[in-house]
Structure formats: C-alpha cells, structure tokens
Amino acid sequence: MFASQGEAKRFFVERIIAQARAEGQALSALGQRVLSFSESDPEFTVDSECVTQLQAEISDEDYEAMVAGRWLSTR
What we know:
This protein has one domain (5-73). The radius of gyration is 12 Å and the shape is globular. Helix content is 65%, strand content 0%. The chain is mainly alpha-helical. The mean pLDDT is 80. Helix 1 crosses helix 4 (60-73) and helix 2 (29-35) packs across helix 3 (48-57). The longest helix is centred in the N-terminal third of the chain and has 18 residues, at 5-22. The protein has helices at 5-22, 29-35, 48-57, 60-73.
C-alpha cells in the first residue's frame, strides 16, 4: 500500500491534521511537525529543538491525549 515508512506516516499525519481542523482545533505548525517524529524513519531528520519548544507549549500528556482522541475519531 505504501512505498515507504515515511509515506505511510505522512498519510496518517495528514488524517490527524485534517480531523483536528474539522473539529476546529487545528494543531500548531510545531505540533504538526512533532507528529512526524520518528527515530526509525530514515526520511525524518530529528530536530530536538522542536520537541523542546512543544514541551513549553503543551504537556506531553495533553498532547498525546489530544492526538490520540483525533486518531480514534478518524477510524
């Protein structure tokens, strides 16, 4: 179905972002970037500064709950 791990990840990230917009709860650009984070994806360049900035914006628990809720509502 997908040619690479990066392609599959982009598919799901786009679905989560679209669902967030549909709910009127758009993710920040930083939040969108962090959704793509993967240590195992060879196409992804890790930017630890993004993670640090997001942690200042929202707690890990709140971010994960927000994204998990959107993921579950797209299924």
